[in-house]
Design a protein that fits this description.
By secondary structure, the protein is an alpha/beta fold. 48% of the residues lie in helices and 9% in strands. It has a five-stranded parallel β-sheet with strand order 2-1-3-4-5, with helices on both faces. Helix 7 links the parallel strand 4 and strand 5.
């Protein structure tokens, strides 16, 4: 295969240890500014995958992220933020990392090299043909992720990926690949940097656009968000005040009575 890992190529910067703090920060920032431009080039791929996810979720399907290391952790972050943000069940968007939950905080040796574990991890969730599985791997070569998607393909399950190298084995495996080519990292091979940022931006797009398409946002407000702390109760109260043109105390009373901005607005009788 004619495949070059641009994420592994040498940094454009030399002698980093001799740079001042100012120069280090300025150059990292300069590189970071190229990431949204790379993501923009992948918008057609992102759109195709989101459309597939929305279609499957309307049939009762779920969204799974699988990855190793930084990529796996980013998937878990995005999945874990969907319930409080959009008021969806915790098992609608699911993040799975090679090595299990212990790998969220500490690297698990050789976990990403397993060619069988990803499918076992997915089977533990009774995965089915209405679900979508997105493999996340900056390199596009992680065995755990590639083999997991291969098994999904064999079983009629829709597959996507987010990778930062063009023409990678992962992209060739996924039915709906997303390739965000960010180029060499500031620190050679440290794909937690630009590649990680690119993956986070794409994950934000996927989950947010999907939830909006599923009706979890009204206007521009998170009307189904969970009221898990005082900050969110205050935010929800102000949403209701704005929507119904009522005083703060009444808005808060309605919010706490009905449990969400949507229900409070729907059930309000002046």
């Amino acid at each position: 295969m004619n495949f070059t890992k641009t994420t592994e190529q040498a940094s454009k910067y030399e002698h980093l240890e001799h740079m001042s703090v100012h120069d280090l920060l300025a150059n990292i920032n300069k590189e970071d500014q190229t990431v949204p431009l790379a993501v923009a080039k992948a918008l057609p791929q992102i759109e195709t995958l989101v459309t597939e996810i929305v279609t499957k979720m309307k049939l009762g399907g779920r969204l799974f992220y699988i990855g190793a290391g930084t990529s796996g952790r980013l998937g878990i972050v995005d999945a874990s933020e969907c319930p409080p943000t959009f008021g969806v069940p915790f098992d609608l968007v699911i993040g799975i990392i090679a090595g299990g939950d212990a790998a969220i905080r500490k690297a698990v040796e050789n976990a990403e090299d397993s060619t069988t574990q990803a499918w076992l991890d997915l089977q533990a969730w009774q995965i089915n043909i209405n679900d979508v599985v997105i493999g996340i791997a900056a390199s596009g070569t992680t065995p755990y992720v590639i083999k997991g998607l291969e098994k999904c393909n064999e079983n009629g399950i829709s597959t996507g990926c987010i990778t930062c190298n063009a023409g990678s084995p992962l992209a060739l495996t996924a039915q709906f690949p997303i390739e965000v080519v960010v180029g060499p990292e500031f620190v050679t091979g440290s794909s937690r940097m630009k590649a990680g940022t690119a993956q986070k931006l794409v994950l934000n797009m996927i989950s947010t656009a999907t939830m909006i398409q599923l009706g979890k946002v009204k206007g521009n407000k998170m009307v189904d968000m969970q009221l898990s702390n005082e900050k969110l109760v205050d935010r929800g109260t102000k949403m209701i005040m704005e929507e119904l043109t009522i005083e703060y105390d009444l808005a808060k009373k309605l919010l706490l009575e009905y449990g969400s901005v949507r229900n409070a607005v729907t059930n309000y009788k002046p």
